[in-house]
Amino acid sequence: MMRLYISTGSSVEVMQGMCDEGVRSRVIWVDLHEPTPQEIRFVEDMLQIDVPTREEILEIEASSRLYEENDAFFMTATMVCRAESATPELAAVTFILVGQRLVTLRYADPLPFRTAASQIQRNPLAWNSGEVVFVGLLEAIVDRVADILEAIGTDLDVVSREVFTTDAKEAARRAKDYRQLLARVGRAGDLIGKSRESLVSLGRLAAFVTVAFKAKDRKNLQTRIKTVSRDVLSLSDHSSFLTNKVTFSLDAILGLVSIEQNGIIKIFSVAAVVFLPPTLVASIYGMNFDVMPELHFALGYPMALGLMVLSAIMPYLYFKRKGWL
């Protein structure tokens, strides 16, 4: 699908599909979302560029993601998609700046693109060129990563309260939800990792485009890009803090799981020790020897029962006195 954002001076019109020759000169943004071969050829003919293939934009080396060709700047960044779902993923998005025009090539639908499209409709005069749209998209992407990290931090705070609660009822409920807590912390760690990867690619892209804007003497856009770079650095630091918090939460949960398991093993161990002496007594008097004096006692049976009870109570009282129970 291809969307064309066409400037009319006082507004921005959105056209889906190809346009004629008279409209092409007013196109400021071409958004290619899972484009067809015909749409790619249309963009290549209109702007005289070679649009990279899907395989090319997935390459991770900097020379394949950030380069200049025939006065056009090709930049690929990694973005987090479907962050609220159970299966967040990373998607590569390519930005192509050709003069005052922008081409975006993507095979996913990240939220910042929808945000930027709605902002263009609300305030078209502020989005009057492809370069401005490009910077606005970068700002929207960074804001989105910030929202993701903020949501992760909030969820980790909730997990910490559940893990370290001192309320007896809450602690008993928590003991049943260790699997869920581990899943939440694990998902947070995975999402932080994806966010950090996105921030690294955005930082490289911002450094590359700063040089490009400096060569074009775009001082206003340079200032906005520098702000984006500072935001990327601060978010990277915050993601490192959240990573440490995830590690701490995982260690705490696994420690509590170990304590619960040790408590269960302790109960079984005490039960085994308590019932071992009565079992020994019962085994002795269960022998089938002919000469066993106690077998002829009138009170032999009650004596054996009492001995078994006494041998069970004494270890229990000993453990209680030592504080092991």
What does this structure look like?
This protein has helices spanning 21-24, 37-47, 54-57, 62-65, 111-122, 130-163, 168-175, 178-216, 219-284, 300-322; strands at 2-7, 12-16, 27-33, 66-69, 72-81, 89-98, 101-106. Strands 2-1-3-7-6-5-4 form a 7-stranded mixed sheet, with helices on both faces. Strand 5 (72-81) and strand 6 (89-98) form a beta hairpin. 63% of the residues lie in helices and 15% in strands. The protein is α+β, with helices and mostly antiparallel strands and 325 residues long. The model has no long low-confidence stretch (mean pLDDT 86). The chain folds into 2 domains: 2-260, Beta Polymerase, domain 2, CATH 3.30.460; 261-322, Up-down Bundle (Methane Monooxygenase Hydroxylase, Chain G, domain 1). It starts with a strand and ends with a helix. It is built from 10 helices and 7 strands. The protein is rod-shaped.
Summarize the SSE layout with pairings.
Layout: E1 2-7, E2 12-16, H1 21-24, E3 27-33, H2 37-47, H3 54-57, H4 62-65, E4 66-69, E5 72-81, E6 89-98, E7 101-106, H5 111-122, H6 130-163, H7 168-175, H8 178-216, H9 219-284, H10 300-322
Parallel strand pairs: 3-7
Antiparallel strand pairs: 1-2, 1-3, 4-5, 5-6, 6-7
